[in-house]
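Field notebook, page 292. I keep forgetting to write these up properly, so this time I am using the form the group agreed on. The chain and the ligand, S-adenosylmethionine, are recorded exactly as supplied. Prediction of the bound pose follows.
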Amino acid sequence: MSDDLPQSSAARAIAPGLHLIATPIGAARDITLHALDLLAGGDVLVAEDTRSLRHLMEIHAIALNGRRVLAYHDHNGARMRPTILAALAEGKSVIYASEAGTPLVADPGFQLARAVIEEGFDLHTAPGPSAALAALTVAGLPSDRFCFLGFAPTQAGTRRKFIAEAAAIPATLIFYESPKRINRLLAALCDGLGKDRQAAMCRELTKRHQEVLRMSLGELADALRDRVLKGEIVLLVDRGEAPVADAAQLDSALDDALTDMRLKDAVSHVAQTLGLPRRQVYQAALAKEKPE
Ligand code: SAM
């Protein structure tokens, strides 16, 4: 462990700049000591959900000491960023928490972090819980490579395209989804990725009713079809077999597409339809254009 680490807040003043802190996704005691120090001593407190942050501070007996908790979320970000940047310009420490887990991970904070970097202020992180990584640790799926895909689009056509792109990613796929939409997502994944890929449904992680189901996509869709689920869900899907390009099929699909599409569009269309990497299709298309 680095010599630099084990110091209490009393021993170390809080640096000016924006501090992004992770908060629990369930169990309140998953907050880190670093995040508690920042909440106790930061000059300005900002939260996606001010009530949740105040509640978390109450649980951990951290006093507000006259500090207000400012709201910063998707609907007021543009209006609030100048206020936060002005506090940073005065040399203050600003602590930002999203409602749960890590800010910027399917949560607000990206635009704020970018603005802080662009204005030349310091940006710090107090890392901690995130549902994506918590789920990866219990899913039983390969963790050497994973791809966070967040919430899939809800519109059917856009979602189909999104899943077709995901099909070719050689990594464990991580989706966030609400219990109301999980069955629709599972049906779409069975269509787009096939029913046989291994998957894990992780619900209410770190909470009393935590549940993890590990089975194939098809079995998961069957198991959940008639259940009324509550709480929060992360769905993980194993990588598929690397697509084996059938040269004849690729050739004929490209011929068809190139009759009425520009090269770039034809490549995208064929890559998506056949679930092949774009690069591979592009190279096949270029080879076609070269004279023998
Ligand atoms: N920033 C958060 C993070 O770092 O994980 C995610 C915020 S996103 C708005 C909320 C989604 O995260 C939920 O819809 C669910 O998919 C997932 N999630 C959050 N807490 C969870 C939990 N305890 N168990 C399972 N999934 C959870």
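OBSERVATIONS:
- The pocket of S-adenosylmethionine is lined by residues 25-26, 98, 100-102, 105-107, 130-132, 176-178, 202-207, 232-234 (CB under 6 Å).
- The chain has eleven helices and ten strands.
FOLLOW-UP: compare against the apo run.
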